[in-house]
User: Which sequence fits this backbone?
């Protein structure tokens, strides 16, 4: 009896859903992000929801929170395949593990565009994101230049084993290799967290009094934690160069006050809205013209035909000179 | 407690939780046309297999009035060790990886169990320590880097199918059956219940209580090792933070399934229902496109509600 009821209901609902789909052509798109607790991901999701195609109803968007777990993300892709989503945008927690997810999705007819974090797969329709290795290089270069090319630095790293952290570390290492007079006296993970970075920096300041001449944070939150720790220890933070990555609002404020020398802004809006445009181009065909305004922002990242396999979103250097302009946004 | 009374008590508690599970499934089948499709049911079975295997091990521990908070970290450690057997140039048979993963889990479990049983340190404290230490070992083992590039034969254990059913589901089902047989039909199984029900009287009636207590942690660790094989094979990469937080879902499944946290009452089929409830909620909320902020609230509420129905149905007797 119960089984019959369930089956009948399911059939009825399937029929209803089927007829609805024929009436108006909507694209069912899933955005699988590694974790909505992350501030950058929040900005990314907000920008995606503000995309003209989502606002106009052309796209029916569902955001899936991976809760920082690869398997959760893999399960969510399975759900999208079952529900016959038209396409997916993917910010994976791990670039290698993500490859199998993309393989399976593509084999099941679900095209996937990567955004923000890379995937080790050539089956993506395209990747719209920033180069984290370059981000690490830019941060390291700025700090080392401000130090005059010599002295002791500390590095606050992202979570152990996470792709974004590995790549930013790689960029920092590249720069360090060119500067033998720079000594890294401490480097450790603070898990992207301001609070963790603050405790870590306090301990480092205790262990190396007056010996830390520069701080590289692999993200802004950790750089801000280091700034807070130095302030508490009575250190003049304008004398110690600190750089971070992402361009979150607190970091831009810190830059404008001279507490940080640089934040490298990663453009969440361009990554998110650009990815959706590229996906819609794949689904609709060459008649599709990008609806987002982000394509006008960077001359070095043109739309072209909308079929490039890589759209590298440039980093923007936020310094004391231009910080005010970003604060207005 | 005599056996027939004990049996009816357990049947009833299972009945209550089954109602809760049925209500959940009927509701979801009304709300989403995809819920009852073969593809989705197969997805659910696949998705619950890791938590299912962890919950089986956890059932043994909780039946013996213990707790194991370290299973998520043990899963991470075992996964890295197993993966290193089948990654890149060091390509052994996947069975070597399975053996290495399960053995790693069992050894960590033995460390837990020995300290708990013979040094009389509370299980909560010992396994909390292991939660931290095993995660640390995981990072030390490969210098904090994930282990990618696993052999196809190994990946088959996570993503392959036999007779249309995913391999992890077979592994989970076989383990479930074995655990049920051990708990219901062996002397060892009765010892586990006896130790959890009343350790002192178990000891006076000749049960080797310390060995039994230590053994349940070994079983739980070995289960975490086996779960790590499926987790790693599904991920196609051993991740250093694999399994973080999984202990909570495993404990929740066991408790939802009617196994008493004070020990001695419950069983693995109850835990299966618990695992299914958690798996169906996760899957259903994804199908319905519920935002993740709300998902967590709904998940918490349904878990408490399920146990509430369970408690109410017991009181009626």
Assistant:
């Amino acid at each position: 009896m119960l089984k019959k009821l369930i089956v009948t209901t399911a059939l009825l609902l399937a029929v209803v859903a089927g007829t609805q789909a024929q009436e108006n052509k909507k694209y069912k798109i899933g955005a699988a992000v590694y974790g909505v607790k992350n501030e950058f991901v929040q900005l990314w999701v907000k920008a995606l929801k503000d995309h003209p195609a989502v606002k106009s109803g052309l796209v029916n968007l569902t955001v899936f929170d991976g809760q920082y777990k690869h398997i959760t993300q893999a399960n969510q892709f399975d759900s999208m395949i079952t529900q016959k989503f038209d396409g997916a945008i993917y910010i994976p927690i791990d670039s290698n593990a993500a490859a199998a997810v993309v393989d399976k999705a593509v084999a099941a007819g679900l095209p996937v565009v990567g955004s923000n974090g890379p995937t080790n797969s050539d089956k993506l329709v395209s990747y719209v994101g920033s180069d984290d290795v370059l981000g690490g290089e830019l941060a390291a270069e700025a700090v080392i230049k401000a130090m005059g090319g010599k002295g002791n630095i500390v590095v606050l790293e992202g979570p152990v084993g996470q792709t974004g952290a590995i790549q930013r570390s790689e960029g920092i290492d590249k720069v360090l290799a060119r500067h033998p007079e720079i000594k890294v006296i401490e480097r450790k993970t603070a898990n992207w967290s301001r609070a963790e970075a603050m405790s870590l920096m306090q301990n480092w300041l205790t262990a190396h009094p007056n010996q830390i001449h520069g701080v590289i944070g692999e993200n802004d939150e950790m750089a801000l934690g280091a700034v807070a720790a130095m302030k508490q220890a009575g250190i003049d933070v304008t004398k110690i160069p600190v750089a971070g990555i992402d361009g979150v609002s607190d970091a831009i404020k810190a830059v404008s006050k001279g507490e940080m020398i640089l934040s490298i802004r990663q453009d969440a809006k361009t990554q998110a809205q650009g990815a959706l445009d590229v996906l819609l181009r794949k689904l609709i065909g060459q008649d599709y013209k990008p609806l987002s305004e982000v394509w006008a922002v960077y001359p070095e990242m043109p739309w072209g035909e909308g079929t490039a396999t890589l759209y590298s979103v440039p980093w923007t250097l936020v310094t004391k000179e231009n910080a005010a302009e970003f604060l207005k946004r | 407690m005599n056996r027939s009374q004990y049996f009816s008590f357990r049947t009833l508690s299972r009945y209550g939780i089954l109602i809760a599970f049925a209500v959940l499934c009927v509701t979801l089948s009304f709300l989403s046309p995809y819920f009852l499709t073969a593809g989705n049911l197969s997805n659910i079975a696949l998705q619950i297999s890791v938590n299912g295997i962890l919950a089986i091990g956890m059932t043994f521990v909780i039946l013996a009035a213990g707790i194991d908070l370290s299973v998520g970290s043990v899963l991470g450690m075992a996964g890295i060790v197993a993966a290193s057997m089948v990654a890149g140039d060091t390509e052994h048979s996947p069975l070597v990886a399975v053996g290495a993963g399960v053995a790693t889990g069992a050894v960590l479990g033995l460390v837990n169990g020995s300290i708990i049983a013979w040094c009389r340190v509370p299980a909560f404290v010992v396994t909390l320590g292991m939660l931290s230490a095993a995660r640390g070992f995981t990072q030390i083992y490969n210098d904090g880097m994930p282990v990618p590039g696993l052999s196809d034969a190994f990946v088959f254990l996570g993503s392959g199918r036999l007779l249309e059913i995913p391999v992890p589901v077979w592994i989970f089902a076989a383990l479930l059956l074995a655990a049920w047989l051990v708990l219901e039909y062996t002397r060892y199984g009765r010892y586990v219940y006896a130790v959890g029900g009343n350790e002192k009287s178990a000891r006076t009636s000749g049960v080797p209580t310390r060995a039994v207590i230590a053994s349940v942690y070994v079983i739980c660790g070995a289960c975490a090792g086996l779960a790590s094989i499926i987790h790693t094979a599904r991920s196609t990469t051993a991740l250093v933070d694999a399994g973080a937080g999984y202990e909570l879902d495993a404990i929740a499944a066991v408790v939802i399934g009617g196994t008493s946290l004070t020990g001695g009452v419950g069983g693995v089929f109850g835990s299966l229902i618990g695992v299914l409830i958690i798996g169906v909620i996760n899957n259903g909320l994804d199908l319905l496109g519920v935002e993740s902020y709300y998902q967590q609230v709904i998940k918490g509420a349904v878990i408490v509600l399920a146990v509430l129905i369970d408690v109410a149905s017991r009181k009626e007797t």
